[in-house]
From TrEMBL:
Keyword ATP-binding found: no
Superkingdom in the source lineage: Bacteria
PROSITE patterns for the chain: PROKAR_LIPOPROTEIN
A Pfam family matched in the record: SBP_bac_1
TM ranges: none
Signal peptide boundaries: 1-18
Species of provenance: Paractinoplanes atraurantiacus
Record carries keyword Mitochondrion: no
Keyword set, alphabetical order: Signal, Sugar transport, Transport
Name by which UniProt lists this protein: Multiple sugar transport system substrate-binding protein
Length: 448
Protein backbone atom coordinates (compact mmCIF):
# COMPACT_ATOMS: atom_id res chain seq x y z
CA UNK A 1 0.00 0.00 0.00
CA UNK A 2 2.59 2.58 0.98
CA UNK A 3 6.22 2.65 1.99
CA UNK A 4 7.26 4.98 4.80
CA UNK A 5 10.87 6.06 4.44
CA UNK A 6 12.66 6.23 7.80
CA UNK A 7 15.87 8.04 8.63
CA UNK A 8 17.43 4.92 10.09
CA UNK A 9 16.50 2.62 7.24
CA UNK A 10 19.22 0.79 5.38
CA UNK A 11 19.65 1.91 1.80
CA UNK A 12 19.09 -0.98 -0.58
CA UNK A 13 20.72 0.81 -3.47
CA UNK A 14 20.67 -0.54 -6.98
CA UNK A 15 23.94 -1.89 -8.39
CA UNK A 16 25.85 0.18 -10.90
CA UNK A 17 24.61 -0.19 -14.46
CA UNK A 18 27.56 -2.35 -15.42
CA UNK A 19 26.50 -4.91 -12.82
CA UNK A 20 22.81 -4.91 -13.62
CA UNK A 21 21.14 -8.14 -14.61
CA UNK A 22 18.43 -10.27 -13.11
CA UNK A 23 18.17 -13.98 -12.50
CA UNK A 24 17.82 -16.29 -15.46
CA UNK A 25 15.74 -19.37 -16.12
CA UNK A 26 18.73 -21.63 -15.54
CA UNK A 27 18.69 -20.57 -11.91
CA UNK A 28 14.97 -21.17 -11.52
CA UNK A 29 13.59 -24.40 -10.16
CA UNK A 30 10.34 -26.11 -10.97
CA UNK A 31 10.10 -27.70 -7.50
CA UNK A 32 6.87 -26.89 -5.72
CA UNK A 33 7.31 -24.38 -2.89
CA UNK A 34 6.29 -25.86 0.44
CA UNK A 35 6.65 -22.98 2.92
CA UNK A 36 3.11 -21.76 2.31
CA UNK A 37 1.34 -19.71 4.95
CA UNK A 38 -1.98 -20.66 3.39
CA UNK A 39 -3.77 -23.92 2.69
CA UNK A 40 -3.32 -25.46 -0.76
CA UNK A 41 -6.75 -26.47 -2.07
CA UNK A 42 -5.71 -28.46 -5.17
CA UNK A 43 -2.57 -30.42 -4.30
CA UNK A 44 -2.04 -31.67 -7.86
CA UNK A 45 -1.90 -28.17 -9.37
CA UNK A 46 1.39 -26.32 -9.91
CA UNK A 47 2.20 -23.73 -7.26
CA UNK A 48 3.27 -20.13 -7.61
CA UNK A 49 5.24 -18.62 -4.72
CA UNK A 50 4.00 -15.13 -3.83
CA UNK A 51 5.48 -12.53 -1.50
CA UNK A 52 2.89 -9.97 -0.37
CA UNK A 53 1.90 -8.06 2.74
CA UNK A 54 -1.68 -6.84 2.30
CA UNK A 55 -3.43 -7.26 5.69
CA UNK A 56 -6.20 -9.39 4.17
CA UNK A 57 -3.85 -11.45 2.02
CA UNK A 58 -4.87 -14.76 3.60
CA UNK A 59 -8.46 -14.24 2.49
CA UNK A 60 -7.38 -13.06 -0.98
CA UNK A 61 -5.19 -16.14 -1.50
CA UNK A 62 -7.97 -18.47 -0.35
CA UNK A 63 -10.35 -16.79 -2.80
CA UNK A 64 -7.91 -17.38 -5.66
CA UNK A 65 -7.10 -20.96 -4.76
CA UNK A 66 -10.76 -21.90 -4.31
CA UNK A 67 -11.50 -20.51 -7.77
CA UNK A 68 -8.62 -22.23 -9.61
CA UNK A 69 -7.88 -25.86 -10.31
CA UNK A 70 -5.03 -25.18 -12.75
CA UNK A 71 -2.70 -23.23 -10.45
CA UNK A 72 -2.38 -22.54 -6.73
CA UNK A 73 -0.86 -19.66 -4.79
CA UNK A 74 1.70 -20.46 -2.10
CA UNK A 75 1.88 -17.25 -0.09
CA UNK A 76 4.35 -15.93 2.46
CA UNK A 77 4.85 -12.48 3.98
CA UNK A 78 8.52 -11.64 3.46
CA UNK A 79 8.15 -8.25 5.13
CA UNK A 80 6.31 -5.02 4.39
CA UNK A 81 7.98 -2.56 2.07
CA UNK A 82 11.70 -2.10 2.63
CA UNK A 83 12.41 -5.44 4.41
CA UNK A 84 10.84 -7.28 1.48
CA UNK A 85 12.72 -5.18 -1.06
CA UNK A 86 16.03 -5.93 0.65
CA UNK A 87 15.33 -9.67 0.54
CA UNK A 88 14.40 -9.40 -3.12
CA UNK A 89 17.57 -7.46 -3.90
CA UNK A 90 19.62 -10.16 -2.19
CA UNK A 91 17.89 -12.81 -4.31
CA UNK A 92 18.52 -10.81 -7.47
CA UNK A 93 22.23 -10.54 -6.68
CA UNK A 94 22.45 -14.25 -5.85
CA UNK A 95 20.34 -15.18 -8.91
CA UNK A 96 18.24 -17.44 -6.71
CA UNK A 97 15.79 -17.22 -3.86
CA UNK A 98 13.24 -14.83 -5.36
CA UNK A 99 9.51 -15.62 -5.38
CA UNK A 100 7.58 -16.15 -8.60
CA UNK A 101 5.33 -13.17 -7.93
CA UNK A 102 6.11 -10.19 -5.70
CA UNK A 103 4.08 -7.29 -4.37
CA UNK A 104 5.84 -4.00 -5.09
CA UNK A 105 4.92 -0.36 -4.71
CA UNK A 106 4.73 1.60 -7.93
CA UNK A 107 7.62 3.92 -7.08
CA UNK A 108 9.93 0.92 -6.56
CA UNK A 109 9.28 -0.85 -9.86
CA UNK A 110 11.87 0.90 -12.02
CA UNK A 111 14.70 0.07 -9.62
CA UNK A 112 14.02 -3.62 -10.18
CA UNK A 113 13.08 -3.32 -13.84
CA UNK A 114 16.49 -1.87 -14.65
CA UNK A 115 18.09 -5.03 -13.25
CA UNK A 116 15.99 -7.26 -15.53
CA UNK A 117 14.47 -8.71 -12.38
CA UNK A 118 10.86 -8.37 -13.56
CA UNK A 119 9.04 -9.92 -16.51
CA UNK A 120 7.11 -8.04 -19.19
CA UNK A 121 3.53 -9.25 -18.77
CA UNK A 122 2.31 -8.24 -22.23
CA UNK A 123 3.03 -11.66 -23.80
CA UNK A 124 0.96 -13.18 -20.98
CA UNK A 125 -2.19 -11.12 -21.48
CA UNK A 126 -1.57 -7.91 -19.56
CA UNK A 127 -3.20 -5.76 -22.23
CA UNK A 128 -6.37 -7.82 -21.92
CA UNK A 129 -6.99 -6.20 -18.51
CA UNK A 130 -5.72 -2.72 -19.39
CA UNK A 131 -9.30 -1.51 -19.81
CA UNK A 132 -9.89 -2.20 -16.11
CA UNK A 133 -7.62 0.64 -15.03
CA UNK A 134 -7.22 4.38 -15.34
CA UNK A 135 -4.55 5.96 -17.52
CA UNK A 136 -2.45 6.90 -14.50
CA UNK A 137 -2.67 3.50 -12.82
CA UNK A 138 -1.53 1.78 -16.02
CA UNK A 139 1.29 4.22 -16.67
CA UNK A 140 2.70 3.59 -13.20
CA UNK A 141 3.30 -0.09 -14.03
CA UNK A 142 4.40 0.39 -17.65
CA UNK A 143 7.54 1.28 -19.58
CA UNK A 144 6.79 2.12 -23.20
CA UNK A 145 4.82 -0.81 -24.60
CA UNK A 146 5.92 -3.12 -21.78
CA UNK A 147 3.92 -3.79 -18.62
CA UNK A 148 5.78 -5.00 -15.55
CA UNK A 149 3.04 -5.38 -12.96
CA UNK A 150 -0.70 -5.66 -12.41
CA UNK A 151 -2.10 -2.69 -10.42
CA UNK A 152 -4.15 -3.38 -7.31
CA UNK A 153 -4.47 -0.33 -5.08
CA UNK A 154 -3.61 3.34 -5.23
CA UNK A 155 -3.49 6.52 -3.21
CA UNK A 156 -5.23 9.50 -4.84
CA UNK A 157 -4.54 12.40 -2.51
CA UNK A 158 -6.97 14.70 -0.75
CA UNK A 159 -7.26 16.94 2.32
CA UNK A 160 -8.62 15.38 5.50
CA UNK A 161 -9.72 17.97 8.04
CA UNK A 162 -11.27 18.35 11.49
CA UNK A 163 -14.78 19.73 11.17
CA UNK A 164 -14.81 20.84 14.80
CA UNK A 165 -11.72 23.00 14.28
CA UNK A 166 -12.96 24.40 10.97
CA UNK A 167 -16.33 25.25 12.53
CA UNK A 168 -14.77 26.84 15.62
CA UNK A 169 -12.56 29.16 13.57
CA UNK A 170 -15.14 29.69 10.81
CA UNK A 171 -13.01 28.49 7.93
CA UNK A 172 -13.92 26.48 4.86
CA UNK A 173 -11.87 23.79 3.11
CA UNK A 174 -9.20 25.67 1.14
CA UNK A 175 -9.30 25.28 -2.61
CA UNK A 176 -5.76 26.54 -3.13
CA UNK A 177 -2.52 26.28 -1.20
CA UNK A 178 -2.58 30.06 -0.79
CA UNK A 179 -5.96 29.71 0.94
CA UNK A 180 -4.47 26.90 3.02
CA UNK A 181 -1.73 29.22 4.27
CA UNK A 182 -4.24 31.99 4.98
CA UNK A 183 -6.45 29.63 6.99
CA UNK A 184 -3.43 28.36 8.90
CA UNK A 185 -2.44 31.91 9.84
CA UNK A 186 -6.01 32.71 10.92
CA UNK A 187 -6.22 29.67 13.19
CA UNK A 188 -2.81 30.37 14.76
CA UNK A 189 -3.65 34.02 15.37
CA UNK A 190 -6.79 32.91 17.20
CA UNK A 191 -4.78 30.59 19.44
CA UNK A 192 -5.72 27.42 17.60
CA UNK A 193 -3.70 24.32 16.69
CA UNK A 194 -1.18 23.94 13.90
CA UNK A 195 -2.90 23.52 10.56
CA UNK A 196 -0.97 20.53 9.25
CA UNK A 197 2.38 18.81 9.38
CA UNK A 198 5.61 18.92 7.36
CA UNK A 199 7.01 15.58 8.48
CA UNK A 200 10.37 14.60 7.08
CA UNK A 201 9.55 10.89 6.92
CA UNK A 202 6.97 11.24 4.15
CA UNK A 203 9.11 12.44 1.21
CA UNK A 204 6.65 10.81 -1.19
CA UNK A 205 4.08 13.43 -0.15
CA UNK A 206 6.46 16.30 -0.81
CA UNK A 207 7.39 14.79 -4.16
CA UNK A 208 3.71 14.47 -5.11
CA UNK A 209 3.14 18.14 -4.27
CA UNK A 210 6.19 19.10 -6.33
CA UNK A 211 4.70 17.21 -9.28
CA UNK A 212 1.36 18.88 -8.64
CA UNK A 213 3.12 22.27 -8.90
CA UNK A 214 4.55 21.28 -12.29
CA UNK A 215 7.90 19.72 -11.42
CA UNK A 216 9.18 16.68 -13.26
CA UNK A 217 11.98 15.42 -11.02
CA UNK A 218 12.99 12.58 -13.32
CA UNK A 219 12.72 11.63 -16.97
CA UNK A 220 13.69 8.03 -17.52
CA UNK A 221 12.89 5.41 -20.13
CA UNK A 222 13.85 1.79 -19.57
CA UNK A 223 14.54 1.40 -23.31
CA UNK A 224 17.44 3.81 -22.80
CA UNK A 225 18.92 2.55 -19.54
CA UNK A 226 22.06 4.63 -19.70
CA UNK A 227 20.48 8.08 -19.74
CA UNK A 228 18.42 9.91 -17.14
CA UNK A 229 17.26 13.49 -16.71
CA UNK A 230 17.31 14.88 -13.18
CA UNK A 231 15.61 18.20 -12.53
CA UNK A 232 15.27 19.03 -8.86
CA UNK A 233 16.52 22.61 -8.83
CA UNK A 234 13.62 23.93 -10.91
CA UNK A 235 11.31 26.71 -9.75
CA UNK A 236 8.38 24.41 -9.03
CA UNK A 237 10.43 22.31 -6.61
CA UNK A 238 11.82 25.44 -4.95
CA UNK A 239 8.33 26.93 -4.63
CA UNK A 240 6.98 23.84 -2.84
CA UNK A 241 9.93 23.55 -0.46
CA UNK A 242 9.78 27.29 0.25
CA UNK A 243 6.02 27.11 0.88
CA UNK A 244 6.26 24.37 3.47
CA UNK A 245 9.49 25.77 4.86
CA UNK A 246 7.83 29.12 5.53
CA UNK A 247 4.81 27.41 7.07
CA UNK A 248 7.15 25.46 9.33
CA UNK A 249 9.22 28.53 10.24
CA UNK A 250 6.09 30.48 11.22
CA UNK A 251 4.78 27.63 13.33
CA UNK A 252 1.72 27.16 11.15
CA UNK A 253 2.41 23.45 10.65
CA UNK A 254 4.07 20.82 12.79
CA UNK A 255 7.43 19.19 12.15
CA UNK A 256 6.73 15.74 13.54
CA UNK A 257 7.39 12.52 11.73
CA UNK A 258 4.12 10.90 10.76
CA UNK A 259 3.00 7.34 11.55
CA UNK A 260 4.34 7.65 15.10
CA UNK A 261 2.60 7.33 18.46
CA UNK A 262 2.98 11.07 19.08
CA UNK A 263 1.56 11.95 15.69
CA UNK A 264 -1.45 9.69 16.15
CA UNK A 265 -2.02 11.18 19.60
CA UNK A 266 -1.99 14.58 17.94
CA UNK A 267 -4.58 13.48 15.41
CA UNK A 268 -6.79 12.17 18.21
CA UNK A 269 -6.32 15.25 20.36
CA UNK A 270 -6.93 17.86 17.68
CA UNK A 271 -3.33 19.05 17.43
CA UNK A 272 -3.63 19.14 13.63
CA UNK A 273 -6.47 20.78 11.76
CA UNK A 274 -5.70 18.93 8.51
CA UNK A 275 -3.94 15.85 7.19
CA UNK A 276 -2.66 15.86 3.61
CA UNK A 277 -2.95 12.22 2.73
CA UNK A 278 -4.27 9.53 0.39
CA UNK A 279 -7.43 7.50 -0.05
CA UNK A 280 -6.07 4.72 2.16
CA UNK A 281 -5.77 7.08 5.13
CA UNK A 282 -9.18 6.35 6.70
CA UNK A 283 -8.26 2.69 7.04
CA UNK A 284 -4.85 3.50 8.48
CA UNK A 285 -6.20 6.07 10.93
CA UNK A 286 -9.01 3.84 12.08
CA UNK A 287 -6.58 0.98 12.59
CA UNK A 288 -4.33 3.28 14.61
CA UNK A 289 -7.21 4.20 16.90
CA UNK A 290 -8.20 7.55 15.43
CA UNK A 291 -11.93 8.28 15.34
CA UNK A 292 -12.94 6.00 18.17
CA UNK A 293 -13.16 8.50 21.04
CA UNK A 294 -14.35 12.10 21.44
CA UNK A 295 -13.08 12.85 17.95
CA UNK A 296 -15.39 10.31 16.33
CA UNK A 297 -17.47 11.88 13.57
CA UNK A 298 -15.31 15.01 13.46
CA UNK A 299 -13.35 14.22 10.31
CA UNK A 300 -14.24 15.11 6.73
CA UNK A 301 -12.39 15.17 3.43
CA UNK A 302 -12.10 17.73 0.63
CA UNK A 303 -10.26 17.80 -2.71
CA UNK A 304 -6.55 18.43 -2.43
CA UNK A 305 -5.82 22.18 -2.63
CA UNK A 306 -4.35 23.25 -5.95
CA UNK A 307 -1.45 25.48 -6.84
CA UNK A 308 -3.45 26.72 -9.83
CA UNK A 309 -7.21 26.09 -9.94
CA UNK A 310 -7.22 26.86 -13.65
CA UNK A 311 -4.97 23.84 -14.23
CA UNK A 312 -5.86 21.29 -11.53
CA UNK A 313 -3.52 18.34 -11.08
CA UNK A 314 -4.33 15.09 -9.32
CA UNK A 315 -1.46 13.31 -7.57
CA UNK A 316 -0.94 9.97 -5.89
CA UNK A 317 0.73 8.65 -2.74
CA UNK A 318 1.32 4.94 -2.54
CA UNK A 319 -0.15 2.09 -4.49
CA UNK A 320 0.96 -1.48 -5.00
CA UNK A 321 0.98 -4.05 -7.77
CA UNK A 322 1.91 -7.68 -8.43
CA UNK A 323 4.95 -8.37 -10.62
CA UNK A 324 6.41 -11.61 -11.99
CA UNK A 325 10.09 -12.06 -11.24
CA UNK A 326 12.62 -13.23 -13.81
CA UNK A 327 13.39 -16.20 -11.55
CA UNK A 328 9.87 -17.61 -11.90
CA UNK A 329 10.14 -21.20 -13.17
CA UNK A 330 6.79 -21.06 -14.97
CA UNK A 331 6.23 -17.49 -16.09
CA UNK A 332 2.86 -18.20 -17.69
CA UNK A 333 1.42 -19.54 -14.44
CA UNK A 334 3.09 -16.77 -12.48
CA UNK A 335 1.50 -14.18 -14.79
CA UNK A 336 -1.87 -15.86 -14.37
CA UNK A 337 -1.50 -15.30 -10.63
CA UNK A 338 -0.16 -11.73 -10.89
CA UNK A 339 -3.02 -10.71 -13.18
CA UNK A 340 -5.71 -12.63 -11.30
CA UNK A 341 -4.77 -12.26 -7.63
CA UNK A 342 -6.77 -9.56 -5.83
CA UNK A 343 -8.73 -9.04 -9.05
CA UNK A 344 -11.85 -11.06 -8.24
CA UNK A 345 -14.99 -9.40 -6.93
CA UNK A 346 -14.89 -11.04 -3.50
CA UNK A 347 -11.32 -9.94 -2.77
CA UNK A 348 -11.79 -6.42 -4.09
CA UNK A 349 -14.99 -5.99 -2.10
CA UNK A 350 -13.33 -7.20 1.08
CA UNK A 351 -10.38 -4.91 0.38
CA UNK A 352 -12.34 -1.70 0.09
CA UNK A 353 -14.93 -2.49 2.74
CA UNK A 354 -12.22 -3.18 5.32
CA UNK A 355 -10.32 -0.13 4.00
CA UNK A 356 -7.31 -2.34 3.32
CA UNK A 357 -6.95 -0.89 -0.18
CA UNK A 358 -8.25 1.84 -2.41
CA UNK A 359 -9.03 -0.34 -5.46
CA UNK A 360 -7.85 0.71 -8.90
CA UNK A 361 -10.04 -1.74 -10.78
CA UNK A 362 -12.77 0.11 -12.65
CA UNK A 363 -15.24 -2.68 -11.92
CA UNK A 364 -15.19 -1.40 -8.34
CA UNK A 365 -14.70 2.30 -9.06
CA UNK A 366 -17.88 2.32 -11.16
CA UNK A 367 -19.97 0.06 -8.92
CA UNK A 368 -22.94 1.67 -7.22
CA UNK A 369 -22.03 0.19 -3.84
CA UNK A 370 -18.53 1.69 -3.87
CA UNK A 371 -19.45 4.98 -5.50
CA UNK A 372 -22.24 5.75 -3.05
CA UNK A 373 -20.66 4.23 0.06
CA UNK A 374 -21.07 6.42 3.13
CA UNK A 375 -17.69 6.38 4.84
CA UNK A 376 -18.09 6.00 8.58
CA UNK A 377 -14.76 7.67 9.38
CA UNK A 378 -15.99 10.76 7.55
CA UNK A 379 -19.31 10.74 9.41
CA UNK A 380 -21.23 9.29 6.46
CA UNK A 381 -19.69 11.49 3.76
CA UNK A 382 -19.76 9.94 0.27
CA UNK A 383 -16.02 10.44 -0.03
CA UNK A 384 -15.49 7.96 -2.86
CA UNK A 385 -17.98 9.64 -5.18
CA UNK A 386 -17.15 13.21 -4.25
CA UNK A 387 -13.39 13.12 -3.73
CA UNK A 388 -11.40 9.98 -4.33
CA UNK A 389 -12.83 8.52 -7.53
CA UNK A 390 -12.57 11.83 -9.44
CA UNK A 391 -9.01 12.21 -8.13
CA UNK A 392 -8.03 8.69 -9.24
CA UNK A 393 -9.59 9.07 -12.69
CA UNK A 394 -7.81 12.40 -13.16
CA UNK A 395 -4.41 11.03 -12.14
CA UNK A 396 -2.06 10.82 -15.14
CA UNK A 397 0.71 8.76 -13.59
CA UNK A 398 4.27 9.67 -12.63
CA UNK A 399 7.80 8.91 -13.75
CA UNK A 400 9.98 7.43 -11.02
CA UNK A 401 13.74 7.12 -10.88
CA UNK A 402 15.69 3.84 -10.74
CA UNK A 403 16.92 4.86 -7.26
CA UNK A 404 13.81 5.94 -5.38
CA UNK A 405 15.09 4.79 -1.98
CA UNK A 406 18.22 6.93 -2.22
CA UNK A 407 16.29 9.91 -3.56
CA UNK A 408 13.73 9.74 -0.75
CA UNK A 409 16.49 9.52 1.85
CA UNK A 410 18.20 12.66 0.52
CA UNK A 411 14.92 14.58 0.28
CA UNK A 412 14.12 13.52 3.81
CA UNK A 413 17.46 14.89 5.02
CA UNK A 414 16.78 18.23 3.30
CA UNK A 415 13.34 18.50 4.91
CA UNK A 416 14.96 17.94 8.32
CA UNK A 417 17.36 20.81 7.60
CA UNK A 418 14.50 23.04 6.46
CA UNK A 419 12.54 22.31 9.63
CA UNK A 420 15.61 23.05 11.74
CA UNK A 421 16.09 26.39 10.00
CA UNK A 422 19.45 25.32 8.61
CA UNK A 423 18.57 25.80 4.95
CA UNK A 424 16.04 27.46 2.68
CA UNK A 425 13.76 25.82 0.16
CA UNK A 426 15.83 27.25 -2.67
CA UNK A 427 19.09 25.93 -1.27
CA UNK A 428 17.57 22.58 -0.36
CA UNK A 429 16.38 22.09 -3.94
CA UNK A 430 19.81 22.94 -5.34
CA UNK A 431 21.63 20.71 -2.88
CA UNK A 432 19.20 17.87 -3.48
CA UNK A 433 19.64 18.19 -7.23
CA UNK A 434 23.42 18.09 -6.96
CA UNK A 435 23.35 15.08 -4.62
CA UNK A 436 21.11 13.07 -6.91
CA UNK A 437 23.04 14.00 -10.05
CA UNK A 438 26.30 12.96 -8.41
CA UNK A 439 24.81 9.70 -7.20
CA UNK A 440 23.35 8.89 -10.62
CA UNK A 441 26.77 9.39 -12.19
CA UNK A 442 28.47 7.11 -9.65
CA UNK A 443 25.88 4.46 -10.55
CA UNK A 444 26.89 4.63 -14.20
CA UNK A 445 24.13 6.84 -15.59
CA UNK A 446 24.65 9.66 -18.04
CA UNK A 447 22.76 12.61 -16.59
CA UNK A 448 21.20 15.00 -19.06
Amino acid sequence: MRFITKAAMSLALIPALAACGGGDDQEATAAKPTNCTNKIVNEAAPRVLVWAWYPNMAKVVDNFNNQHTDVQVCWTNAGQGQPEYEKFQTAISAKKGAPDVIMLEADQLVGFEIQDALVDLVPYGANDVKKNFSEGAWKDVSQGDKVFAAPVDGGPMALIYRTDIFDKYKIKPPKTWAEYAEAAAKVKAAGGPVFGDFGSNVPAVTTALMIQKGAQPFVYDLSDKQNITVKLDDQATKDVLNFWGEMSKKGLVGKEDQFTTDYIAGMVGGKYATYVSAAWAPGYLTGAGVGNGKEKGKFAVAPLPQWDTASPVSVNWGGSAFAVTSQAADKANAAKVALGLYADEASLTDGWKTQTIFPLNQSVLTSDEFVNAKVEFFNGQTANKDIYIPAENAYKGATYSPFTVYYYAQLQAQIVKINEGKTTGDQAATDLHNQIVQYAKTQGFTVK
